[in-house]
Amino acid sequence: MAYLRERLLSRHEFDDRGDVPGWVLITLMTAGLVAGIWAIAGPTLNDLFTRAIEGVTGG
Q: The pTM is what?
């Protein structure tokens, strides 16, 4: 009986590791979204930042 309980507990430890391919896919999709948004909005954000700094510094 102790052997069965020990074996069930050791299986439970491995089940807690998670879904690695799923996390890799989520990470890659998030990186793709960030790169896409940055490509579209990057020049506008850069211009906005530059104007804000010039407004603060008086340049």
A: 0.52
